[in-house]
């Protein structure tokens, strides 16, 4: 679990009913605890797991994520039907911190295995009746 998480959200309704919503979230790096598994000796099936570092000594990168949504609703048929074009811009800063690493001891130890998703723009229409 990240020890500190800060989140800031805001929405602004501009002229012509254009809505802009901004979301920012900061998470400090998650703890990384590498284990080493010692297999059981001949005839024994039990293995032993050893921690290779103290708790909290190693952490993944901190994550800063900023997202923006733009929308503009339009009503038809005396307000019974609403059509709203929506634009979502995720990871505006295109940050790519490492959010997962290989924990098992060996040649791939501490290798990056997952990143924060890159910048993505999504366009859509929301129909309400």
Layout of strands and helices, then pairs:
Layout: E1 5-13, E2 19-27, E3 35-38, E4 48-51, E5 63-71, E6 74-76, E7 81-90, E8 98-101, E9 112-115, E10 120-128
Antiparallel strand pairs: 1-2, 2-5, 3-4, 5-7, 6-7, 7-10, 8-9
How does this model look, in words?
The protein is mainly beta and 129 residues long. Helices cover 0% and strands 50% of the residues. The protein has strands at 5-13, 19-27, 35-38, 48-51, 63-71, 74-76, 81-90, 98-101, 112-115, 120-128. Strands 1, 2, 5, 6, 7 and 10 form a six-stranded antiparallel beta sheet that branches. A two-stranded antiparallel sheet has the order 3-4.
Strand segment count: 10
Mean pLDDT: 91
Strand content: over 45%
Could you list the spans in which at least 5 consecutive residues all have pLDDT below 50? none
Order of helices and strands: EEEEEEEEEE
Structural class: mainly beta
Tell me, what's the shape?
A: elongated
What is the end-to-end distance?
A: 42 Å
Features:
single chain, two-stranded antiparallel sheet, 10 strands
Summarize the structure.
The chain is mostly beta strands and 129 residues long. The chain is built from no helices and ten strands.
């Amino acid at each position: 679990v990240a020890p500190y998480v800060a989140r800031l959200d805001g929405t602004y309704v501009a002229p012509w009913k254009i809505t802009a919503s901004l979301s920012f979230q900061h998470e400090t790096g998650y703890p990384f605890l590498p284990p080493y598994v010692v297999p059981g000796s001949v005839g024994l099936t039990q293995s032993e797991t050893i921690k290779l570092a103290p708790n909290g000594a190693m952490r993944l990168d901190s994550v800063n994520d900023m997202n923006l949504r733009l929308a503009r609703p339009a009503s038809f048929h005396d307000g019974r039907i609403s059509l709203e074009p929506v634009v979502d811009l995720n990871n505006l800063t295109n940050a790519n911190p490492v959010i997962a690493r290989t924990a098992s001891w060996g040649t791939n130890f501490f290798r990056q295995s997952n990143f924060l998703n890159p910048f993505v723009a999504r366009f859509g229409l929301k129909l309400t009746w």
